[in-house]
From TrEMBL:
Keyword Ubl conjugation: no
Any Pfam family: Aldose_epim
CDD domains per UniProt: Aldose_epim_Ec_YihR, GntK
Region (Disordered): 177-205
Protein name in the entry: gluconokinase
Pathway in which this enzyme or protein is active: Carbohydrate acid metabolism
């Protein structure tokens, strides 16, 4: 299939040191897109190949005709309106400038890995003219792509299909459907020494006046602001996460009563992570580090493996991608069952919204839901009832007042694009944030924080939690997703700050 109409990207230039996987990744990427691809190696003169094979690194002068030949090929593809993938180590800024200058349709995909990992791959690669011994010269020449080059950077310590999936997603390219499960084992990577704050690495995204920060611990959303105004009641870089702030809730959101459930004939017992109420709460991935899989200036993709463990003997590959656009923040949480048995699955996320009021009482809330779940003292659903005529009817915007919410809503009213929109507005009604619930969302938990462990933070923000299923789905089966081996689930939600009267809040 040719390039999708309307997609601006006409050519992807895959760069990185020798052995970073350019040939492998470009080949797969081209295959997924149905685009032609060429490898930079094909453009070397016989003399240059012989020089490298003899153990001598190339000089700038050696590389000039090679870069010119690659550029000429790119121009021929562009002239023929053929989208394409081409590799080139393009180690130095000047080389990339030469390839990118005057070619606006070209996007940079930089494959990033540690020297140790690349060396191991080169040493294992056979039948190639480039000797592993030249690797140090590659790293000596390497000038990593800078933000003003707008690279998409993908980490190579994941199997090739996962590298390609991250690249496609971060480049904003859609490929015809392909088998989704990465089946190869990721190689082990060296544990780099790190300066670990309480939530580990911090990955910042920017778009216009928007800024968001995603953290390594739990892949959580720590912060989101527009034009300097915080839209989340989040946490600081030097603070531990409390009260589920911004956390990803996988493989179940909210509670499993007694942590005990039955699935496919097996009785399973989860650790009780909410011992005071005898429940297992918010999944198993909140307190583990997630890995960086790829990033660009406005997006980051993180992931982790959920290994079989007591109470959840299943194997999942989980990823979360956060992206800032002109429309706000978009989140995609994906999971693939990479094990051999069917797995029960649910997902949610736990951001607390704020519109800058001291308490949430004065903020205006809209929840387009016809029903809410009633719960028992343990927070477990006992039934479903219409909100009509009750204090839970927020279908029309009104102040939260003294209402204490820890409530799952369903019967969501969706717009033409399939999204249901929960709105929190400033008392003036002039500005606020919309939280939209997209693909995979069936319930939304709204929690005013009345029971938080830190009294000072109670009712300061409203948790609005996109969820695929309600509390206790492992026991009741309500809204439960069952992932067959190889099958996946996607949850999409996002935040859109707005101002009334004439205009977009975002720049
Ligand atoms: N993501 C990956 N995981 C594991 N092995 C990889 C990955 N990418 C590439 N390889 C292997 O590493 C070696 C170097 O990859 P290659 O595509 O030839 O790199 P380059 O074109 O950048 O020199 C090859 O043997 C390839 O099969
Ligand atoms: O909003 C919800 O989903 C829960 O009903 C609510 O009770 C909240 O999540 C916990 O108080 C925070 O959870 P932790 O204290 O376990 O982080």
């Amino acid at each position: 299939m040719p390039a999708e109409a309307g997609q601006a990207t006409a050519l992807v230039l895959v760069v990185g040191v020798s052995g970073s996987g350019k040939t492998t990744v470009a080949g797969l990427l081209a295959e997924r897109l149905g685009w032609p691809h060429r490898d930079a190696d094909e453009f070397h003169s016989p003399a240059a190949r012989a020089k490298m094979a003899a153990g001598h690194p190339l000089t700038d002068a050696d590389r000039a005709p090679w870069l010119a030949a690659i550029g000429a090929w790119m121009d021929r593809e562009a002239a023929a309106h053929r989208p394409a993938v081409v590799t080139c180590s393009a180690l130095k800024r000047s080389y990339r400038d030469r390839l990118l200058h005057g070619r606006p349709g070209v996007r940079l995909l930089y494959l990033h890995g540690t020297r140790e990992l690349v060396r191991a791959r080169l040493e294992a690669r056979h039948g190639h003219f480039f000797p592993a011994a030249l690797l140090d010269s590659q790293f000596a020449d390497l000038q990593e792509p800078q933000p003003d080059e707008h690279p998409v950077v993908v980490e190579i310590d994941q199997p090739p299909p996962a590298v390609v999936a991250a690249a496609l997603s971060l480049l904003g390219l859609t490929a015809p459907a392909a088998p989704s499960a990465p089946s190869e084992e990721a190689p082990m990577s060296e544990q780099a020494p790190r300066s670990a704050g309480p939530t580990g690495e911090q990955w910042e995204l920017r778009h216009g006046g928007q800024r968001a920060v995603v953290v390594e611990l739990g892949g959580a959303l720590r912060h989101y602001e527009a034009d300097g105004v915080p839209l989340l009641d989040g946490f600081a870089a030097d603070e531990p996460v409390t009260s589920g702030r911004g956390q990803l809730l996988v493989p179940w959101p909210n509670r499993v009563g007694g942590g005990r459930y039955r699935f496919d004939g097996a009785d399973l017992q989860l650790p009780l992570s909410e011992p005071e109420r005898h429940n297992a709460i918010h999944g198993l991935l909140r307190w583990v580090p997630w890995r960086l899989l790829g990033r660009s200036g406005e997006a980051v993709r993180v992931g982790t493996t959920l290994h079989p463990q007591p109470g959840y003997p299943f194997l999942l590959e989980v990823s979360a991608e956060y992206r800032l656009t002109v429309d706000g923040l978009e989140v995609r949480v994906g999971a693939v069952n990479t094990g051999t048995a069917r797995a029960p699955y649910g997902v949610g996320q736990h951001p607390y919204l704020t519109v800058g009021t001291d308490l949430v009482d004065t903020a205006l809330l809209t929840v387009p839901a016809s029903h809410r779940l009633t719960t028992d003292d343990e927070g477990l659903p006992t039934g479903e009832e219409p909100v009509e005529g009750t204090e839970y009817d927020f279908r029309t915007a009104r102040p939260i007042g003294a209402t204490a919410l820890d409530t799952a809503f369903t019967g969501l009213e969706r717009d033409g694009t399939g999204r249901a929109v929960v709105r929190l507005a400033h008392p003036s009604g002039q500005r606020g944030t919309d939280l939209w619930l997209g693909e995979g969302t069936r319930y939304v938990q709204v929690y005013t924080g009345d029971t938080l462990g830190e009294p000072g933070r109670r009712r300061r923000g409203v948790a609005v939690e996109a969820m695929s299923c309600p509390a206790d789905a492992f026991r009741t089966g309500a809204g439960l997703t069952v992932l067959e081996p190889g099958a996946g689930h996607v949850l999409r939600w996002g935040l859109r700050p707005w101002v009334a009267a004439g205009g977009a809040a975002l720049r």
